Structure prediction request, 387 residues.
Amino acid sequence: MLVAGWLSPPTLQPRKGQSMSNSIEVRKTYQYRLYRCDKRDQHLRQQINIAGTVWNHALALQKRCYRLTGKYIALSELKAHIAHLRMTTIRYAFWKQLGSQSVQDVLERLDTGYQRFFKKLAKRPPKYKKVHQRKSFTLKQAGWKLLDGNQIQISGRTYKFVKHRPMGGAIKTLTVKRDAAGRLWLFFSVVEQVIMPNEVTPDKIAGFDFGLKTFLTDHSGKTYLSGLHHARALRRLRVLQSRKDKKPHGTNNRKKAAKLISRTHIRVADKRRDAHFKLAHELCDHYEVLCFEDLNIAGMKALWGRKVSDLAFSQFVTILKHVAVKRGKTILQLGRWERTTGKCSGCGHCQDMELRERIFHCDSCGMVLGRDHNAAINICYAGAYLR
Ligand SMILES: [Zn+2]
Prediction:
């Protein structure tokens, strides 16, 4: 059976409503590491801890109120109450070390967590967090100032950060974060204008299929492998874990061993993210429109286990979207109902295909092609039609 137009990729037309100069507003994050300075760092760490205390306090209030009256405290009431505690009581006077906007931000996050739970977007309501596990606090417009070079002033103190690249756009918020290895980072959330190109030729449109054997396969059959960094670090992680298990609870040696483990995890994550960024840029070098399948990660994890997490498809898609937006490229994600694996890319014939079959063999036209390659071509065609 031949489907008209299926054999050659369709010509591309600008989408409806697309004007010639097409600029969009995007939200981007710039991340910088703070130089270590134990004395001054202490103040930032202290502020992160206070954010944690405020979170737990407000959460306890919500829980108690619900237990006693069955009601939820509205965000505005909660803000007013916490502000009152912060300004008038001696017991909570230390909250003043954290700016009022940051306190409000903590309460807003807590409220968002509850709203997601009420709307059934989250399975559980927000939880108590150990204060030393609290990761960050956020400043809006006030309380910080960028100085010359690589310096920044945060609540009256000057810090230096590793300015490895220039920042653009209008800064909306600044978040100070600490990671599991105890390093401090600055996250600037900015709004930037990006210009999207209109003219796209068919050779600039590509389809990609994710796989377990090969990380990515594109429509021309080119494969991209994954580093599987976690799998490589697994042996070392096991050794470190058993070393930690031998140390008695509550000792400094145990804490040190735990830190080594989290460092290893962080290095794995760093390497993976770096590889993902490099691949994303490589793909964006070659193509204007990149088509992917919408992934069912939870389902894949149930089927294949840890390896899916190590491949981190969804993290890659997030990074790719980020890079694509920055460079004015388009990412298309097809719906899950789009048939891509069991369909012949030559004639459009559909047939059942088992998971372990690595080669697609068309019953109708006899075409033989790698499973992922065939799917990638289908995704490319479907994406071209979608546009
Ligand atoms: Zn066929």
User: Anything to note?
Assistant: Confidence is low (pLDDT under 50) at residues 1-20. The longest helix spans residues 252-286. Residues 344, 346-347, 349, 362, 364-365, 367 surround zinc ion (CB under 6 Å). The first strand starts at residue 22 and ends at 33.
